[in-house]
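Lay summary. Proteins are chains of building blocks that fold into shapes, and those shapes determine what they do. In this project we predict the shape from the chain. Here is one chain we studied, written as its sequence of building blocks.
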Amino acid sequence: MSKETLPPSDPTPPAFSHPMRVAALATRKPTRFKITPNAAERAALAQVLDLLDLPKVTFNGELRPTGSRDFILEAQLTADVVQACSITLAPVPAAIKDTVLRRYLANWVTPEGDEVEMPEDDTSEPLPEVIDLGDVLTEALALALPLYPRAAGAELGEAIFAEPGVEPLKDEALKPFAGLAALKAKLSGPEDAS
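And here is the predicted shape, written in a compact code that computers can read:
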């Protein structure tokens, strides 16, 4: 999507754009694509996705016509990413490999009402005038990233807080059966002694 085709409500252009006009797509055979963003585009994607680095990303697939006016996008996303550790902020490299599937439906009906059920098929969406493969790549990569990257050896410590003179409550005490062994020993102790 170019800057000229952005809706007026979105003043900032996307980090990476690769627009495909639906009217220009072949209606009898697949339109194949292989997108490999350059260094500047990878840097922009890394900034949008809050990555420390994005050394490599490839989006390879096709847009296939289906039915009379619908399209299916099927692609492979591969990427090497570097995220900040969720505990220590140290760099954590990861390799991403994911299959991306989208169904663009010309007769899409947006559910209305107060209680809307989510469709079982979350790959379907309305057919736009322009399918921006850059947007699809960005969204797919965002969904494929590890949620809480952790550097090797990084562990979440235990914080213990209590007022002066009060014994702090620890995780062991919160476990439902933690005190049963001690209670059983206390209750059975006098019987065993007699």
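What the prediction tells us: The chain has one domain: 3-144.
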